[in-house]
Amino acid sequence: MAETRANIAELDPVWARIMREAEDAVANEPLLGGMVHYSILHHPTIERALSYRISLKLANQEMSEQILREICDEAYASEPELSLAARADIVAVYERDPACHRFLQPLLFFKGFQAIQAYRVGHWLWQEGRRDLAYFFQMRCSEVFGIDIHPAARIGRGIMIDHAHSIVIGETAVVGDNVSMLHSVTLGGTGKEEEDRHPKIGDGVLIGAGAKVLGNIKVGNCSRIAAGSVVLTEVPPCKTVAGVPAKIVGEAGCAQPSVSMDQILRGE
Length: 268
Hints:
alpha/beta; serine O-acetyltransferase activity; Ser_O-AcTrfase; about 45% helix; acyltransferase; Serine acetyltransferase; five-stranded parallel sheet; 10 helices; six-stranded mixed sheet; about 15% strand
C-alpha cells in the first residue's frame, strides 16, 4: 500500500494530497468516515472521485446516479482535459480562497467547484452532439447549485468561483484561464440576438460580486471589475472598471488580479 501511495504521489500530487487529507479528516471526525470513504478513499483516481461526486449531486428521479456516473466516466476517459482542468481548479480555489485550507474542501464541500466540474462534463456532451443530455446537466446544476452555465460556453482552467450563488454564464460566453469571480456575477446578453452575444473574459480577470458583463464585449487580460458594476463596453487589459455603467477608474494594480483577489479601489 505504501508503494502504491508513493507512485500516486509521484504521478498525481494533487490526488495524493487529497487522499492524505481525507485520511486525516476521517481520523479527526469519524462521523464523516462514510462520506469521505465513499467520496474519496474508495476511488483509485481523481477522475473516478469526480464522477462519483457529480453523479451523486445531480441524480434525481428522472436520471439515476448510476447512469450519470457512467456518463461522467465516459467523459473523463475520452477527454483528459477535464481532469487536468479540475486539478487546476482545485489549486486555484486553495490558493485564492482564504476559507479553503485543504485541497479536499472544494471536492467535498464547495458548490462553485462542483458546479464547474459538472459544467465541464456538460460541455463535453455538447461538443459530442449530445445536446439534450447537456441541457439536463445545465438544468440540474441550476437546481442543485444555483449556478446556471450554458453547456456551450467555453471556460478555461484555474477557475475560482467564491460562494458561487446566482452565477449566470451565457451560451456564447468565453472565460479564459485563471479567472476568479464572486457570487451573483452575470455574463449575459443584451437582447434577443441569436449569434455571438455574450462576453469574452480574458485570462487572469477578477470579477467582483454582483457584477454584470453584458453583450459581445471583450474584457482584457488581468483586468478588474468592481463589485456591483454593469459593464457594457470593452475593458482594456490591466485596467479596473467600476460603476453603472462601468468606467475605467485606474490600473488593475497588480499583475494577476484574479490571484491576489484584491478588490479595494484605493482612491482610483
